[in-house]
């Protein structure tokens, strides 16, 4: 039987999260928001062709007409275009707004209590994944996680957003819990776009990459308590960055992105 760790590794974590099933199926707005987040945060690149409507419907767990309506909203926002013909389909186009404007817009809509709450929720699940991974990880799993981290690029905001989310999905896979994997994918799709806005900061990118290596070392050493503590501390740092950024925007200031 194919191991969960091997199966989940076939698709990069952040991209897998984009197309995870919706919690409340049947809402075109959720489809549109999921795709919009993925495009504006760089998980889906300009020029990339989206999966077919039938494939999207299956992966999101909604009807084809819901996908069509959701794609229509994303088209109206100027983020995808639909081409006809044998090589046609829906293609991602670069957003007109700068990423800085998109960051401002996303944070402005969130209340401070929402930011704090999502950080608590995310960190609770992620810390549980890390602790269980430390209990279950084999030497081969540790080698694979180390190799994944060596290949992960945190040098730019876009690549760091993808890999920060991907790392936590890797920890969920190593927990060997199908339920935890599904929940982490759902959380990444729902909350990841907000949390990883912090990757706009070079300091946060460097700190996130360093902490990821520390977490991987603790998992390899089967130190569940340390793995959990490192995850909790990292998400708390990210939450503090977001709250500071939120405050700066609300005061009419500029955000360095």
Features:
257 residues, mainly alpha, globular, disordered N terminus
Shape: globular
Structural class: mainly alpha
- State mean pLDDT (0 to 100 scale): 84
So how many helices? Answer: 12
Q: Helix and strand succession?
A: HHHHHEEHHHHHHH
The count of β-strands is: 2
Distance between the termini: 46 Å
- Helix % is 55-70%
Poorly predicted ranges = 1-11
Fraction of residues in β-strands: under 5%
How big is the Rg? 18 Å
- Which strands sit side by side, in order, in the main sheet? 1-2
Main sheet summary: 2 strands, antiparallel
Q: Can you summarize this structure?
A:
The chain has 257 residues and is mainly α.
Please explain how this structure is put together.
The protein is mainly alpha-helical. 68% of the residues lie in helices and 3% in strands. Helix 9 (157-174) packs antiparallel against helix 10. The longest helix has 27 residues, at 224-250. The chain starts with a helix and ends in a 7-residue tail after the last helix. Residues 1-11 have low confidence and may be disordered.
Strands, helices and their partners?
Elements: H1 4-8, H2 13-18, H3 28-40, H4 53-60, H5 64-76, E1 80-83, E2 89-92, H6 99-109, H7 112-136, H8 139-151, H9 157-174, H10 178-195, H11 202-220, H12 224-250
Antiparallel strand pairs: 1-2
Helix pairs in contact: 3-5, 4-5, 7-9, 7-10, 7-11, 7-12, 8-9, 8-11, 9-10, 9-11, 11-12
């Amino acid at each position: 039987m194919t191991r969960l760790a091997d199966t989940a590794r076939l698709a990069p974590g952040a991209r897998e999260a984009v197309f995870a099933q919706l919690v409340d199926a049947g809402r075109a707005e959720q489809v549109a928001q999921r795709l919009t987040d993925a495009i504006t945060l760089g998980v889906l690149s300009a020029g990339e062709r989206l999966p077919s409507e039938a494939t999207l419907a299956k992966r999101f767990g909604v009807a084809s007409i819901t996908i069509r309506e959701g794609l229509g909203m994303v088209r109206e926002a100027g983020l995808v275009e639909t081409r006809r013909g044998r090589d046609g389909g829906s293609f991602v186009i670069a957003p007109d707004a700068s990423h800085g404007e998109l960051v401002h817009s996303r944070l402005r809509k969130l209340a401070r209590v929402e930011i704090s709450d999502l950080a608590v929720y995310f960190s609770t699940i992620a810390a549980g994944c890390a602790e269980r991974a430390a209990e279950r990880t084999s030497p081969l799993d540790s080698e694979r996680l180390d190799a994944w981290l060596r290949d992960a690029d945190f040098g730019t905001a876009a690549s760091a957003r993808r890999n920060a989310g991907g790392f936590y999905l890797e920890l969920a896979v190593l927990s060997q819990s199908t339920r935890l994997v599904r929940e982490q994918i759902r959380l990444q799709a729902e909350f990841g776009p907000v949390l990883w806005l912090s990757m706009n900061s070079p300091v946060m990118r460097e700190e996130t990459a360093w902490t990821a290596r520390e977490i991987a070392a603790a998992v390899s050493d089967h130190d569940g308590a340390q793995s959990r503590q490192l995850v909790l501390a990292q998400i708390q740092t990210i939450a503090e960055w977001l709250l500071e950024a939120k405050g700066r925007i609300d005061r009419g200031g500029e955000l360095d992105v």
